[in-house]
UniProtKB/TrEMBL annotation:
Pfam families assigned to the protein according to its UniProt record, in alphabetical order: Ribosomal_S14
The organism's place on the tree of life at top rank: Bacteria
Encoding gene per record: rpsN
Alphabetical keyword list: Ribonucleoprotein, Ribosomal protein, RNA-binding, rRNA-binding
Function: Binds 16S rRNA, required for the assembly of 30S particles and may also be responsible for determining the conformation of the 16S rRNA at the A site.
GO biological process: translation
GO molecular function: rRNA binding; structural constituent of ribosome
Protein name: Small ribosomal subunit protein uS14
PANTHER family: 30S RIBOSOMAL PROTEIN S14, SMALL RIBOSOMAL SUBUNIT PROTEIN US14M
Organism expressing this protein natively: Candidatus Tokpelaia hoelldobleri
Self-association state and partner proteins as the record states: Part of the 30S ribosomal subunit. Contacts proteins S3 and S10.
GO cellular component: cytoplasm; small ribosomal subunit
Family indicated by similarity: Belongs to the universal ribosomal protein uS14 family.
Amino acid sequence: MAKISAVEKNKRRERMVKKYANRRARLKAVVMDQSVSLEERFKASVQLAELPRNSTKVRVRNRCEVSGRPRAYYRKLKMSRIALRELGSLGYVPGLVKSSW
């Protein structure tokens, strides 16, 4: 089980990304648009830099929904390999057969 503070910090980042997504996309579009004047593009890049760092999508870490583990994360299932194995052994994941040899 991961530290609760780390999981909560990541959830806070996810909420912040969602909150600033439209504003960030709008500013990035202005910065990338070559037809806009250089002054406006620079002004948009300064406004983009003034947004909170945790509002960027890159700072969100994929974590297991079950245990909060940040490593060995399966995106399709939104859980780590360890949680997947435990739930698979209990028969909670349809179609999953645990192999042993």
